[in-house]
Amino acid sequence: MSKTTIDNFPNFSGYTVVMDGPQNVLFEAANVYKIQGRDQYLLLVEGWQSGPRFFRAWTSSSLDGPWTPYKTSESDPFAGLSNVSFPGGRWTSDISHGEMLRAGHDQTMEIDACDLQFLYQGRDPSSTADYNLLPYELGLIRAN
Known about the structure:
Blueprint: E1 28-35, E2 41-47, E3 54-60, E4 68-71, E5 96-100, E6 110-111, E7 117-123, E8 136-142
Parallel strand pairs: 1-6
Antiparallel strand pairs: 1-2, 2-3, 3-4, 5-7, 7-8
């Protein structure tokens, strides 16, 4: 984590570790969002367990933590195969490199808890292309 004042944004200095763990738990695509109208934050991190990629989530009342596990397992993820449906038929096994659609367009990263939408990338699980040439496509998850 790195901090700065709004007046100094986007200039940051120094880093603080707020969470660490194995690579498969805290892999990539980490983002922290402010829940609009609440003193609460949502941390999302892509990882994997025994299969395809999915997103885990933690919550906190402060950017400094502590971070409380919210949806962190493969069987009960924030976004993964066990809780995402594909109305046109499943086209991917991976929920990867995601980003919440925000309530605004500034540095506060606020999300509307009543209108959660998550943009992610997925790919055809039968693809055998080189990793850098995989045919990724975008999907949108909407909370119901």
